[in-house]
Description:
- The chain has about 220 residues and is an all-alpha fold.
- Helices cover about 75% and strands about 0% of the residues.
- The protein is built from 13 helices and no strands.
- The protein has helices at about 1-10, 15-40, 50-70, 70-80, 85-90, 95-105, 105-115, 120-125, 125-140, 145-160, 165-180, 185-195, 205-215.
- α10 (about 145-160) packs antiparallel against α11 (about 165-180).
- The longest helix is centred in the first third of the chain and has 28 residues, at about 15-40.
- Residues about 1-15 have low confidence and may be disordered.
Amino acid sequence: MWLVVWNSVIRKPSANIQRLLFLASCFIIFFLIHFAIFADINLHIMFHKNIKLIIAGLIVATAVWQFTESNIGNGIFLLLLTAIPIFLYFKNEFILLAFLKLRKQDFEGAKKWLAYIKNPEAALVRKQQGYFNYLHGIMVSQTNVNQAEKYFKKAIELGLSMDMDLAVAKLNLAGVAMTRRRKLEATNLLNEARKLDKQNMLGEQIKMMKDQMKKI
């Protein structure tokens, strides 16, 4: 008798209730993602990077719940959805948008997106901090050599994912060293940039700078 009563108390929710719970959890997850982006852009509140991992964890927990309820399709969908916050944890959205603006030579647009990152140490993983400095270095390289040098050195210290980006940073530092008549330093940086430039995309610029150094 007690077993019957207990089973009636903890009986499985109806299909409609489960569907409502699933939709509610999806709404909360999407709300968290969109609120984080809205707050970054419109309220200038930069969330800690770990918030994205917490959102991913909530999605995984919801996916596990769906699997236990035999809603395999919902669970798979949610697991795929976790790729978004995890990807944005390692590749910050504002860094990506700034890169897109730079590809179009829109320096003001790139500067605008980077300005949303108020605290790089809290908002970005180490290599993304490197790119934060790398992008700033590119933007000020034509107007403020001293500031560009600091940015590029910091970017190399923090690390960059692509050899090509490292080559560009070293090439710019070689240009700074050359303007200050530090010939040995400039030569070493150019040689390092040439080794990193495996596709020889910077070959002409490196050759031109080496020719200029002969006149120093």
